[in-house]
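Teaching assistant's notes for section 4

Start the section by putting this record on the projector. Ask students to predict, before seeing the second block, whether Arc-like DNA binding domain-containing protein will look compact or extended. Collect guesses on the board.
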Amino acid sequence: MAREKKAFPLRLDAEIHRAVERWAEDEFRSVNGHIEYLLREALRKAGRLPSGNRPAQPTDPDSASDNAEQP
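Reveal the predicted structure now:
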């Protein structure tokens, strides 16, 4: 089941956008998809992502070590 998406305008510094664009290409994601991924990971690491929205398995190599550090 697809999650509802909320559309909103986002203004970024051109240099930041170029950096995210290159990073997204390296990860085979769209810029929009990569920004969403980065936000989701930041929210997860900060403990601010509701439990129903957490991925079942880590999505990057750093996630495994992050999970080990939590009590």
